[in-house]
Amino acid sequence: MIMFITFFPHFYDECSPREASAMEKIKQFLGPSVVLGGTASLYAVGLVSAMTSLLFVLGLYISGIVPENAYFPRAWYRQNIFMSLYSLYCSENVGYTYLRSLLHQRQAVPHSDYRHGVRLLSGEQVTPSPFPPHISEGSEFHRRGGGTVDLRVLGEMCRAGRYTGVVVVPVPVLRDNYAYFILSCKTGCCAVVDPADPALVLYMLQVVRHLMRIDFVITDILTTHKHWDHAGGNKELLDMSVASGENSCPLLSRELNIYGSVIDKPHACNKLFNGGDELTVADGGVKVTALGSPGHTQGSAMFLVGDAFPKDGEAQRLALFTGDSIFCGGCGALFEVGSVDDILKTIDLFNDSNTWRHPVTNVRMHTDDILLYVGHEYTSACMDMILYYHGPGLLHETQAEFAASDYYNNVLKAKEEAKQLRNSRIGDGIYAQVPHDGMEGKVLHLPPCTVPSTLSAERKVNILLSLKRDVLVGLRDQEFSSMTLQKIIYSSKERQNLS
């Protein structure tokens, strides 16, 4: 979803969160003063009429264009129509038909290099890395989750029956979204998460099939929430699946299952679930637990995924597909947060060790073996936002402030690692080998994706998961807006000391 709302405080709130309440009260009138003063000046010099000035101010007010921020009183936002505009965005008649293609324009090529994010959910690294040693051995990112995977070599092993587990492949779509393939090498079937751009998703499936020489078929779609940059491709893929029966080698199953939460009811979903439900996808090869995570939308869900056929003695990992609930370092805009308890639900899920049990073996997984695959390539922006609020300062005396200092250092390190990763571009000639409009003969040098993260990494740097639970519990009896809650989450120095 549109990330600028997540970062409103960065642009509009230049004051320290510790300002005295008197200063806060004064500050909230700066916005109206600037608006009124500016229009009055234009009127005074004769550039606009009094009526035009009045209509401009009224239009600015009722439109909801001005995002909620500390420079306008809260009363300014009570009667504007932002939520009405948001409802239109979510609607089928306006949002799906018109706004979807306008706000979420499709791209001819992936925005990032997917190869850096390919991981196995079963077994140790079974293939050499597709990257040179200075890349594959030089960073913690490329070693996490058992290490990167060469899909060509993996395909050879799968065809020989030497690997029958599950592999996750990121699919960069739109401007900065991620869809994901969850491939079962045992069944030859595939589930896909949030395939908002069907054309690019199906092309990338052809790339995977070409590399692995296995004709994977999409049998299931997992939809994290209702926004069009996640659910906007469901209907197209459903329509294509019906027509695919005439194809001797279809990319889509004719019996395509499209999953979404019963609360959100994302577009074209024919299988609805509740939080906590267990699903089986990819023709039985993949087990999924749906986890409710309200806030970004009331029905936002995360999917905890594991191999349905784990072998005794074989290392296992779980993949968590978070949508817009959690990003690498950050969290999604709280468009539909109903109360602090909505956010606490997500925090409690992450803090409960029972959440991280393997869906088949019931074994509690180590936090290093929980791979987080998020909905957007927002890692650098999230780290910048955190550092804006948690810059270096003098030594502090309280334990909470020491924890905040450690937190800053953890985030600074993560930001530098993400920067180095995004700058380590390695050409990929596969796009020249698999026919696709506009990419014939091209070798693409794309910035590497920064997924997956891990649960252990996010507990150290994530702005929500590192927050002490008591901070939000203390807000239960207070009135607040979603923007105020977002600011508290980002600015609070009360951080768990997990360095």
Features:
alpha/beta, Metallo-beta-lactamase, Chain A, 2 domains, 13 strands, 37% helix
What about the largest sheet? Answer: 7 strands, mixed
Which parts are unreliable, with pLDDT below 50 for 5 consecutive residues or more?
1-20
Number of strands: 13
CATH structural fold name of the largest domain: Metallo-beta-lactamase, Chain A
CATH architecture assignment name of the largest domain: 4-Layer Sandwich
| DSSP strand content | 5-15%
CATH homolog superfamily of the largest domain: Ribonuclease Z/Hydroxyacylglutathione hydrolase-like
Number of domains: 2
> Mind telling me the C-alpha Rg?
24 Å
Share of helix among residues?
25-40%
Work out the helix count.
Answer: 20
Give the N-to-C terminal Cα separation: 31 Å
CATH secondary-structure class of the largest domain: Alpha Beta
Secondary structure class reads alpha/beta
Shape: globular
Model description:
Helix content is 37%, strand content 15%. It has 499 residues and is of the alpha/beta class. It folds into two domains: 3-80, no CATH class; 102-491, Metallo-beta-lactamase, Chain A, CATH 3.60.15. α6 (82-90) packs across α7 (92-103). The longest helix has 25 residues, at 399-423. Residues 1-20 have low confidence and may be disordered.
Concise overview:
The chain has 499 residues and is of the alpha/beta class.
Topology:
Blueprint: H1 8-12, H2 21-27, H3 30-44, H4 50-63, H5 75-78, H6 82-90, H7 92-103, E1 119-120, H8 133-136, H9 140-143, H10 151-159, E2 166-173, E3 177-184, E4 189-193, H11 198-212, E5 217-222, H12 228-231, H13 234-243, E6 252-261, E7 271-273, E8 278-281, E9 286-292, E10 301-307, E11 318-323, H14 340-351, E12 370-374, H15 379-389, H16 399-423, H17 430-433, E13 453-454, H18 455-461, H19 469-473, H20 482-491
Parallel strand pairs: 4-5, 5-6, 6-7, 11-12
Antiparallel strand pairs: 1-2, 2-3, 3-4, 8-9, 9-10, 10-11, 12-13
